[in-house]
Amino acid sequence: MSASPSPIVSTTCGKIQGQWQNQDQIAVFKGIPFARPPLGELRWSPPVPAEKWEGIRPATKFAPFAWQRGTDIHKFIDNLVNGQGWGFWRTFFIKSLLKVVPMPRQSEDCLYLNVRTPAPGPQAKLPVMVWIHGGDHQDGSAAEPFYDSNALPQREVVTVSINYRLGLMGYLAHPELTATSEQGVSGNYGTLDQIAALQWVQENIAAFGGDPANV
What we know:
Blueprint: E1 8-10, E2 15-17, E3 19-21, E4 26-33, E5 56-58, E6 65-66, H1 73-82, H2 88-99, E7 106-107, E8 112-117, E9 128-132, E10 158-162, H3 167-171, H4 175-180, H5 189-204
Parallel strand pairs: 2-5, 6-7, 9-10
Antiparallel strand pairs: 1-2, 3-4, 4-8, 8-10
Helix pairs in contact: 1-2
């Protein structure tokens, strides 16, 4: 880890710089690429590892979330809140509060993850929890306010939240795609994104203070 006021970690692709939260107790890294943008020839294909970069990459803002059926992710959040069984006024208050929270934009370029750690550096070897958001494989994002929490890092757990392709971009199966696939299958690209993110965790989480053998 660097002596910089902001936490800096070296990954297999290059260095990233996050920011401290909770009075410098939790280091937060947002928008870390774990695969190349699934655009052009990489659309409807298995994820390809991210390219390396020079210098220090800022990791202080959430990356775009996956293209999805709705134009407003707050609709998904509304449905999530409605399912909690809270009373009218509590539900109304929480919905109103969440609707003013700024959200990243949608994009096909969405294969990014976020890391929260109380102890960046390879010596800590803390347990790791990877959060894969729900949403019927059609909605959701790792940047949703419900998932933006330091509760586990405050208990000495490194947390990772990931984006993955959704809906048509993540799960389309079609004979023409199958015919051009090296694997001879199509569909489940979103699931392959999740696997790629878990592989990234195995290769990089030690630098954030996590134990790759305890994920």
